[in-house]
Design goal:
- By secondary structure, the chain is an alpha+beta fold.
- It has three domains: 143 residues, no CATH class; 95 residues, Response regulator (Rossmann fold); 85 residues, Immunoglobulin-like, CATH 2.60.40.
- It has seven helices and 20 strands.
- A seven-stranded mixed beta sheet has the order 17-16-19-20-14-15-18. A four-stranded antiparallel beta sheet has the order 6-7-8-9.
- Strand 19 and strand 20 form a beta hairpin.
- Helix 4 crosses helix 7.
- The longest helix has 13 residues.
- It is globular.
- The chain starts with 7 loop residues before the first strand and ends in a 5-residue tail after the last strand.
């Protein structure tokens, strides 16, 4: 085993929820990711859709128990000294699959080794091991300080959004979709009627296209008077999956350098997308036809290497007023399709 040290850190991360093109839903999860040498460990696992055990929506007692386990102050949850590093974002069932590793002490140091994909009580390293990943040796003081700081964490992320707009039916469908994926949503026509205490509970405020500049400014001023920062979302179109994607992006509090999906733009029949690590990217086109009905089409689904990529779009998929939603396992971006050629 190499004596070289890796740095250990933690950073907020999000598994973006959403309304999928096939009509299904993906649950929103906020969690704390592990940084190894400054880079999210999850990104080294290609296109894995998973969250760490340090999720913000678990009860405080369970969260504390997870931290204590990583500090080896509790027994491993799995045989052979193995711990769950990443698990299913929809449930806690090991049968769905989890990334596990042995965590052990060597004097003051902590070592993570023998990473594997595991679906039952025992890991088969030969068949399902992540060969070439680790082992990682962490300085004990740095490792303990990072995890101990979580036990003093402030309030959890504000996973609520205030919806303001003229089309009540669209807002009602949007609120229902957000609640389904785990995001609280409330509808109002005037934020001045909402108390400062309630305003502090929102992480984002979404405006419909009919909301004027003066009304928008008044709402943001109400949040400012309440002493809270809120992410404003200007709705691109009355299309629920598109609006959900915009709100998910606004609620993402993970550091910009630690995101996989960093840019999306579209013009004419081409889209430009940028990713920072190998991952699967799915792009869905939404457009409004002449009768103002929503048309949906999957325009891309594939693995991309780090960098900027140009993707051709079918003309029929982006005809007229059209928008794109790009999604990876950890993030989502939305963008309008402008007329003309991509830059």
């Amino acid at each position: 085993m190499s004596a070289a040290y890796a740095t250990f850190g933690l950073a907020p991360a999000t598994r973006a929820g959403g309304v999928l093109a096939d009509g299904g839903y993906q649950v929103h999860r906020d969690f704390v990711d592990f940084l190894v040498d400054g880079r999210p460990l999850l990104f080294r696992l290609s296109d894995l859709d998973a969250v760490s055990p340090l999720a913000s929506d678990v009860p405080p007692a369970i969260f504390t128990a997870q931290v204590r386990a990583l500090l080896l102050e509790a027994e491993p949850p799995l045989p052979d000294g193995r711990f769950v590093i990443y698990g299913c974002p929809e449930c806690e069932d090991l049968a769905c699959g989890a990334v596990t590793a042995v965590i052990e002490r060597d004097d003051e140091d902590y070592i993570w080794r023998d990473f594997a994909w595991q679906t039952d009580a025992h890991a088969d390293l030969e068949l399902n091991g992540y060969h070439g990943l680790g082992p990682f040796r962490f300085h004990g003081p740095q490792y303990r300080a990072a995890l101990d700081a979580l036990l003093e964490r402030s309030s959890p992320p504000r996973r609520r959004v205030l919806l303001i707009g003229a089309r009540v039916a669209v807002l009602a469908r949007l609120a229902a979709a957000l609640r389904t994926i785990g995001i609280g949503a409330d509808i109002t026509q005037d934020a001045r009627d909402v108390s400062a205490g309630e305003l502090r509970g929102y992480g984002a405020v979404a405006f419909g296209r009919a909301v004027g500049a003066a009304e928008r400014a008044a709402v943001l001023e109400a949040f400012e008077r309440a002493g809270t920062e809120v992410a404003p979302v200007d709705g691109l179109a009355p299309i629920v999956p598109l609006l959900v994607a915009q709100i998910e992006h606004a609620l993402d509090r993970s550091p910009l350098p630690g995101r996989r999906l960093t840019a999306l733009s579209a013009a004419g029949t081409a889209a430009d997308v940028e990713v920072t690590s190998p991952c699967r990217v799915r792009i869905t086109a939404y457009r409004l036809d002449r009768l103002y009905r929503t048309r949906t089409r999957e325009v891309y689904d594939g693995l991309l290497e780090p960098g900027r990529h140009r993707i051709a779009l079918e003309p029929k998929a982006v005809k007229g007023e059209a928008y794109l939603v790009a999604r990876t396992s950890g993030g989502v971006l939305a963008a309008p399709v402008t007329r003309g050629k991509a830059g």
